[in-house]
Every structure is written in structure tokens, then in C-alpha cells.
Amino acid sequence: MSETILETKGLTKHYGGVHALEDADFILEKGEHVAIMGDNGAGKSTFVRQITGVEQRTRGTIVFDGTEVNFSGPLDAREAGIETVFQTLALADDLNVPDNLFLGREKTMFNWLGPFRILDYKTMREATLAGLEKTAVKIPNIRNTIANMSGGQRQCVAIARTATFASKLTIMDEPTAALGVQETAQVENIVRTLKEQGESLILVSHNMRQVFDLVDRIVVFRRGRIVANLNKDDTDGQDVVAYITGAKTGAEYEGAA
Amino acid sequence: MSDKSHGTGGLTFDKSKRQWPNELNVFGALILIIVIFEILGAIYVGQSLLFDSNNRFDSIFNEQRLRIIIIQVAIVGIIALGVTQVIITAGIDLSSGSVLGATAMIAMSFAQVSEVNGGPNPKAIFGPAFLDLPVVVPVMVGLGCGIIAGIVNGVLVAYSRIPPFIATLGMMLFARGVAQWWSKGNPVSFPTEAYSKIGAGMMPVIIFLSLAVLFHLIMNYTIYGKHTYAIGSNEAAARMSGINVPRHLVLVYAIAGMLAGLSAVILTSKNLTAQSGMGLSYELDAIAMAVIGGVSLFGGRGSIIGTVIGALIIGVITSGFTFLRLGAYYQEMVLGSIIVGAVALDQWQQQRAATRS
């Protein structure tokens, strides 16, 4: 009984005369982990930006969790349940882990105090620990500021947000691009944990090994179009590279690119 | 290796990366400076700076000097509490001294008495309807002037994207102009008795310390404080997290303006007069207190406690030089060096922390 969490139809984005994304039809089932691959400039990040409301699409429809959506900004998307781990980490360096997880949606008491309402540190700390536990993220001391953490720890904090806020869809844009081997392993472990918990995920990645390790399905973008939709078990690295470079195009997408 | 490893990813806990509150460093500096003055005092003057070496008081401290130390920094200290918040957002407020000047003139005009020595008040700015007003009026006018100036600063910074340095520099010149235009350069004097009590005696210190406690709590335990640090730390992240950054900045600058207005009320009440030159270079003294107290001009770091200790350091140095009977020139040279040294030390620590992680 698979249910669709996200579906786009004819999603298109033009930047002036540049057709960055053209008629993208994309489906993601609940609990499914899908990788988006493609060369630089293939439209991967553009696609993500339309879904997360960072940019406004030129045309097309987005159906999220059963309803058609028009996010006016990333905050809208987040409120609907789409958590994004951006390439550039959206963390405040001088704040600690719970502060960052709850940034912009703090738990507060005495709400009649308006901008001076009191922070409920205890609840936020407990929720943070629960979220970190859920994702198996180990942070030595959550009261340390982000500035004192390694790149891997920072990425983990960014990812832990999704677990803390029971999101419906997580999008990661090259989460391990800037990380070392050990740290990459840590992030990949978290992704596996999310899979076990039935969290839906879109993973933008260049890393072939990682993609084959982590996801169920691979969608390949080329020159603004989706050119392949491959089950992981029916394909291999060479095959995917052929689609990425343009040596092959999926049968159902013939004539598209 | 294994004893440091936490779980699957091999993330490690490094004791040297544990955080040491910056306020302790600043407090250490304060103690060090006091010790230096005590030693120099013992050698050159034969007296103690802070302790009651001449048995003039009941306690072991030289209460009179302690009082002077804190009273001379209290009024600028109130400004520094607001400036601290502005700097934590990675902004700067150069206008507070001039806003104090303008507010002093305007607020004092609403605090005047009708009769002086049996005759009409020779300095009266307004007609009889505005004399002998209840004390709440000039106080509200003073706070209001400060808030308005702060809101203008905040709107310029937040919505027109003018750099804070330029926006508040403009306000600095503008407000000083207002102060001089208000009574064509004449002082405004003869306040009501109730008004003159606001800044009398130790009142400035009591107000300063109460506000310090209040803003310490606000900065650490309210959403306002959290967002102030978040904006200074990473404005883009703050915006992406849904914080209304422009609105918050206006609030921060308005609070800084309000505190400058309050200082004007206290200062005019203490001096029983308002002059257009009041508060000259107070903004720089306030910034110096914050910077010495460990508030980073790059935003995101610093605290109210740090600024209060920074204010005390300036107070101790000022009193210390008088105590050693050294001229004010030396005092300013040393203060200048300390400010540069504090920032250099902070930079060095930041870089060391960055290379470690």
C-alpha cells in the first residue's frame, strides 16, 4: 500500500532565457529513498529549490502529501513537513545544538510576553536528545556551540533537525560533499537510520558508491530534464554514468533531451 | 582512541574543546588591573586603591572610591547595555551619545519649574502650560525620543540595507544638530524637584545594575535574546529559520535608543541642567566597554555581564590614574591600548579555536 508523498507534474523553471528545468515529472512514495544524480548544471539543485519554495517555479504542479502546494518560501515548506539540509549549512555558529535545532521555532513559556517570552530550555534539550538518539547522532556535549564542532558534527546537527521535527520528507543536497571519510560514514549511518524509520528522502549526490549504498531508486537529470528513472537493483554504476553523460536515455524519456 | 570515541561515526570528545566562559577572562583582566594598581599604589603613593588603608571607613574597602568608580561609569554603562545588544547583531550604534544630547535638551524642557527664586524661570523653553509638569512627562518624553531615534536607526539598517556604521553616523550628526537647534545652544535648566531625584546620589548605579540584571536575563532566557545572537551569528541562517530579521533589528536598535534616552534623563537630572554638548563621545566609551567586555564586533558573541565588567575595568583605570596622580593623557593612552589589546586577544583566540576544529 504505497502512498505518494511528493509528485511533480511538468515542473519547469526558466531563468530568463535559460531553461534550467523542463517538464520534470517526479514521484516519491512514502518511506522511499530516492537519489537525484546528474552533471553540474543538470538541474538537480534547481529542482530542489522549486520543491522547497526557495524559488518560485515557472510552471507545473507540486502535490505534497495529497494536496497541491504553493510554497511562498522555505519556511512554508518546512511548516508543511519538508526539511532541507542545504549545501551551505544553515546553522548559527555561536549557538549550541538545541538552539540551532529550534532556531525560529523555539518552545516558549509565558507567550503573552511577546518578543520577550521565556525559552523553555528543558523541553528543547529533551527533544534534542531524543532527536539525536533517533538518528544515532553522537555529539559529545550539546551545550557546546557549533563553532567548536567538526564539519561532520555540524552536518549531523543539520540532519538531526529532521528527526526532531517529525518531518514528512527530508531533502539533502550533497550532504557529504565537504566531509572526510569518517564523517561521511557517520552521515550515511544517519541516512540508514532514517530509512529504517520510514522517513522519505531525496538525496542529491555525486557519489556513486553512496547512492548505491543508500537509496532505492535513482533519478538522473541531464540538461534540465529527467532522463532516467532507475531501480537500484536493475542498474549499475556504468549504466547510470551512461545516462548522466548522455550516452543513453531512458525509453520513456526518448525525445526529451 | 577508544576511550574518546563516541559511537559509530568516530566523533570524539576533546577536552581541550570544552568551552570556557569568556566573562571569566574579562573578570581575570579586571582583577589583574586592580592588582597592578594596588602594587603601583603601594610603591608610589603608599596607599591602597580599593582597600581602606587609612582607616577612614568602617569596612575594609575604601567605600568612597568604590562608589566613585561605579558612579562614573553608570550612565555610559546604561548606554553600553544597549550598544552591546546592537553589536551582538553584528551592528554598531554610533548615535547614542548624540541621541543622549538631543534627548537631554528635549526631555529637560518638559521638566522645568515655573518659578525660580520668586521670579519666572529665566530658562523656560515652553509657555506656562508646560511648566511644573508631573515627573512622568519628561521621563516618557525622554524614553520616547530615544525610542524614535532607535527606530529610525533600525529601519535604516534593516530595511534600506544601509550599513549600520553609516546609518548611525547619520543619526549621530543629525541628533547633535537637533540638540544645538533646540534652544539655539542655550542650556535648559531648573528642573522640578521630583525630576532632580531621578539621578541623585547612587540612583544612576542602582538603575544601571538593575537594567544589567534585567537585560542579562532577557538576553539569556527569552526568544528576543536568542534571536539577537542568532542574527549576529549567521543572518542568512536566521532568515532561513523564519526569524523576522528586519523587525527584530528594529526592536534591538529601538531598545538601544531607549537606553540612550534614559541616560539623558538620568544625566540631566543629576546635573540639574541640559546642554547641547552632553554625551559627547559617550557612544565610543560605550562601545569600548562592550569591546573590553568581550563583545565581538563581528556579532554573535558577547554578554551583558562582560560589558558590565568592561565598564568596571574602565572605571578602575580612570580612578586608578587619578589615584596615582597621573595625568588624563596617560589614562587615555592606556585605555586605547587596552581596547586594541582586547580585540587582538579575541582574534587570536578565535583563530586558535578555528584551526583546532
TrEMBL record, chain A:
InterPro entries: AAA+_ATPase (IPR003593), ABC_carbohydrate_import_ATPase (IPR050107), ABC_transporter-like_ATP-bd (IPR003439), ABC_transporter-like_CS (IPR017871), P-loop_NTPase (IPR027417). This is Sugar ABC transporter ATP-binding protein. Keywords: ATP-binding, Nucleotide-binding. Transmembrane segments: none annotated. SMART domains: AAA (SM00382). One of its GO terms (molecular function) is ATP binding. PROSITE patterns: ABC_TRANSPORTER_1 (PS00211), ABC_TRANSPORTER_2 (PS50893).
UniProtKB/TrEMBL annotation, chain B:
Pfam families: BPD_transp_2. It is a multi-pass membrane protein. Its main location: membrane. It is found in: Cell membrane. The chain crosses the membrane at residues 26-45, 66-88, 135-159, 165-182, 194-219, 250-268, 280-298, 304-324. Keywords: Cell membrane, Membrane, Transmembrane, Transmembrane helix. The keyword Transmembrane helix applies. InterPro entries: ABC_transp_permease. It comes from the Bacteria. This is ABC transporter permease. It comes from Parasulfitobacter algicola.
